[in-house]
Amino acid sequence: MLPTSFLNRLAFGVGCLCLLLDHVAVAQQRPEGSLDSIPVKMKNAHTALEEVVVTAGRSRQRLKDVPQKIELISNKDIAATPALDVTDIVKKTTSVNVIQYPGILSGVGIRGFRPQFSGINQRTLLLINGRPAGTTNLGTIDLNNIDHIEVLKGPASALYGSQAMGGVINIIPLQSSGQISGNLFADYGSFSTFQFGGRAGGNITRRLDFDISGTYFDRDANFNIGKGNLFRDWLGSKDARNIYANGKDTLVNDARGDGQKRPNTRYAYYSTAARIGYQLDSVWRVDISGSLFNAKDVESPGDIFSGEAGAGLKNILRYNSEAALTGRIRNNELSARLYYAKEQSKTFAIRNARGIVIDTPYQSGLNTYQWYGIQLRDIIHLRKQRLIVGYDYNRTVSQTLSYAAPVNATQKESTTAPNAALITNGWYVQGQFTWLSDRLKVNPGIRLDVTRFAVESTPAFSQTLITGAKTNLFVSPSISAQYDILPSLTMHGSIGRAFVTPDAYNVAGYQVSGKGTGKVVIARGNPSLKNESSLSGDLGLRYEHVRSGIAADITFFNTRVTDRIVSRSAPPATPETLDGDVVTAVTNYFNANRSTISGLEIMASYDLGALVNYRYSLRFFTNITRTFKADDITVATNGTTTKAAIQNVATANINYGVEYSRGGKYGVRLTGRYVGKRWDTDFNDPLRPLVQYPAFMTMDAAINYAVTRRHQISVAVANITDENYYEKRGYNMPGRNYRIRYTYQFGKNIHH
Length: 752
What we know:
By secondary structure, this protein is mainly beta.
């Protein structure tokens, strides 16, 4: 937790900033078309939907003109959804799969690809402003500096290269102009949770503009696991299902922890971000930005199966920096972007292998990732047609270190994975063409990636290591198109190739867990791994009629993956021991022959406010992903075929809700989330059986009320029915919890 003196200084500084900016803002005029954080009248808001602009296609396009499936999470959605980080807001709005642990650790999977929360080669690409986000962990991205989030579903390697197999999450930070404005907020909630922060932005002079934001968060008490379980009882979800290698099929009671206080679930962090922009002349503009996330003494509870024996502690430090030069010369829209990012996670041992508290905790691990690169792009305007050409260079470096318990004040350093670097040079061309009086839009594209995978000298690596480098060439073509059958009815589809390279741990990692307990688990890398590649396609219909208040989209998707990189845990073929401990299971990485994924996505909404010309809004909405198939298929040397479900992928993900607002004075949103059955490995059983999670459902509510034009009160309740649920088995999430927030707006005329 942060010292009181620091908090006092920070609070004083933020207060002074607020008074200064509010004074400046009063003297300025409000630019036409600037956005208020409290919604404007619904009639204007719905008209604005026609002009929503996204950039996930590497250029600004109206959302309605993009053939690929892109879902937008607006600033309004973020404000009206109980969420602590990007993972929370994405899982509660876009029907994706997640793995999430208490204590700032999470990842997302899109369209049947398994969620990942570590490593530099994930299958969902995370971007900030169109460039690598500089984090492996979605939980480290603060919501306070976000304008909106674009979730592109489907392959995007033709635009972005490696990792964009299931989709892309592109986070767009604030970029304010016009009158200086912003807000300050403070909230208090369950588990002694306190949060405060603020943000401001706008033009200082006609040419100079800025954004600044900051957040401090502190959960000072351990959370309680849910015990109400209305939905669990309704769904009949009290049992998980274990299937063993010998075919044994058993049910396991999954009500562990009902109503218990979960030790080691406290944490605190602060996050800051700043941007300064300057219009050099009528052609060129420069923007420089940076952000910092710092969390110390983040507690981790470990698996509930082992009580507090697996508890741990960690520090997380992440910072990003970026400089961009943009301009337009005749028909060429040019940009050059430089970036650097670093993420560092230190873990600390607070208990020994037998679960006994260590008198003097010590640092037990250090994971470091660094990203730096350059992006060059030219958007060539040819009347109605556009051609985008670009070049990306990126270097990603990873380092993993482990530290033994100190002996005579000296720690032995080792590593469980070799130092590695991924160096990528990518060249791409993307067309954005429109024909037939703008009824037909076609976006073809192709990209060549030359990727150098280097395993570098690693002095502390405990196993035999062969250093060297391998260069991969990969071509990713794609094409997407849409046709307006009627003014409100559009057919859309896309097909594309995507890939991901293996990382160092998959290739040459080695880890032993449980030393000294009598039983250990070993994970070994495979130096023969190939690139994983996929061919994906989708086809859908979209209907949107603002006057009637109806919007809907139904999309079928299908993916075929070859050389899929998967892991399997099983007892060793012959009995093994390691330093006197029995090896109970070995985890290996290998290329499955192929994988097949298919499913259906449905989005629908209806606003009753259309019946009264949007004098108010009463909108019902849902977002559904039904996964028909998500299987890894392996063919043995004798020709036999083995099929296994892709782990942590639900049969169905459903978001649904209803929201009411009237004139920006107040708003109410009630939302729910259903997650179907998922497969995983039961690591608490020494035989490592497959385990099928039961389905679960949760519900949230949020109420916002504008007391005056500048003062707003909001109340949010998460997990209303107090469910005992988890995103990763054994790491149960908080039960019912609430938050009350006060927000002060400055520099704006907020209309009721």
